[in-house]
Amino acid sequence: IGNTVLHILVLQPNKTFACHMYSLILSYDRSKEGPGSLELIPNNEGLSPFKLAGVEGNTVMFQYLMQKRKQNLWSFGPLSTVLYDITEIDSWAEDQSFLELIVSTKKREARQILDLTPVKELVSLKWNMYGRPYFCFLALFYILYMVCFTMCCVYRPLKPRTGNRTSSRDNTVYVQKMLQESYVEYEDELRLVGELITVIGAVVILVLEIPDILRVGAAKYFGQTILGGPFHIIVITYACMILVTMVMRLTSTTGEVVPMSFALVLGWCNVMYFARGFQMLGPFTIMIQKMIFGDLMRFCWLMAVVILGFASAFYIIFQTENPENLGQFYNYPMSLFTTFELFLTIIDGPANYDVDLPFMYSVVYFAFAIIATLLMLNLLIAMMGDTHWRVAHEQDELWRAQVVATTVMLERKLPRCLWPRSGICGREFGLGDRWYLRIEDRVDPNKHKMMRYTEAFKAQERDNYDKGSEKLESNGDTLCKKGLPALSLSRNTSRTSSHRGWEILRRNT
Questions:
Q1: What parts of the sequence cross the membrane (predicted)?
Q2: Which distant-in-sequence residues (6+ apart) come within 8 Å of 362 by Cβ?
């Protein structure tokens, strides 16, 4: 019951009341240390009160709980050293990481906790010491891997075509070699080494990605933009295309260019994932994802309807015409593709003015130009501009969340020997087996002195106002008759108290 009440207090809108009641309930907890403590008992979702405060974005409760956990190590003048308990914050030994919960939640308030002490210092320590070097090395390794795969595709085994052409539009001059002919010369063996590296890399990608899908869930794993959800879809699809290409090569099946082309596009697009390691480029990946899966997906439905309707109209108009003179609409698939190019203004209106054009072509093309080019394309630009404006106001916050997600990902993937635990064990200071982060803080005495003077001025003005109010209540008739002198006296008194305060400030300076 006590643990349930603690979870309820974390969700309370009245933060001051919740903090006082939280302390009151914990004062009756007999097992304040160890696994039996009320603060360490999780709810049905596996969240302790501390983690729940982070997921809900309750910064007041989070700071209150952190103040309870900190230990003042020493203080000397304006300098002080504090030990913050990072037992539930550090993701090193946690199955359900606190940092991963913050960046994966849909509440924007939760990401504000990344700016609070000691979360900000812990993430900065992990990223600067281990995360950034490993991430840059991984980016370089992936680019070299994609260069190797691209060279294998460019120099894939081909031979001249020997069969007769079946159509005047047939333009094929090379065909794919059979498996027995593909690995004969020295250049083929060199290409085989690159192909083996490519296949091994695809298998490693699947081995690393599938356990995370099973642990987190497909919907959450692919749906979270900050966690790199779309890029996970891209890299898994890329690995599957590599394996399909390998099977087609081993079975001498024609048409391997289809999965190979998809793999090249997806593999090189995945390079944008590594832009999140840089503050200048990281927010742009979020912007691209939001535009593609937000604005562009909604716009594609409207675009498909318009293209389908006008492509059908163009095909019907030119269905009775000679395709040799007007070949852009000679069949229905070609009509769809030509209309798509017209929609994006890639080509001009396909018309042969050496022959008589149907009258309806001019009418339909005029309506298409007004709807597609002037209306819908400008609508897409306006939608993307609005998305850019919204993301630009959150770019620093989004980049910090990307850094946290990348750090947690690398910490889970890399062996423990390459990523030691951050912080200091509490045994060194007689604080048990908990882990702490030492943070040095410098208190500016001038700032606090100025704050005290400001409060003193406010107190003097408040006292003068109270005294003036008492005089008005006791001598109402007299003050009504002598209003102007009383007002002048009040101003002089206020001026005298302010003058006294400034004299104190000059003397101390």
A1: 134-158, 192-210, 231-251, 257-275, 296-318, 359-381
A2: none
> In which element (H, E) is residue 82 found?
strand 79-85
Amino acid (one-letter) located at 290: K
Residue 328 lies in a domain: yes
Does residue 507 fall inside a structural domain?
no
pLDDT digits (tens, 9 = 90+) for 91-104: 776 667 777 778 77
Structural domain including 242 reads 125-163+171-276
One domain, residues 264 and 138? yes
Cα–Cα distance list, 29 to 38, 40, 43, 151, 444 (Å)? 7, 12, 17, 66, 38
Domain count, the chain: 3
DSSP β-ladder status, 424-425 and 71-76: unpaired
Shared domain for 130 and 267, answered yes or no, is: yes
Among the listed residues 455, 397, 409, the one whose alpha carbon sits nearest the alpha carbon of residue 221: 409
pLDDT single digits (tens) 369-419: 888 878 888 888 888 888 778 777 777 777 788 888 888 888 888 877 777
Helix (H) or strand (E) holding 297: helix 297-317
Q: How many CA atoms lie within 13 A of 213 on its CB side?
A: 13
Separation between Cα atoms, residue 259 and residue 282, nearest integer Å: 29
Range ranked top by mean pLDDT from 20-34, 132-146, 295-309, 458-472: 132-146
In a domain, 304, yes or no: yes
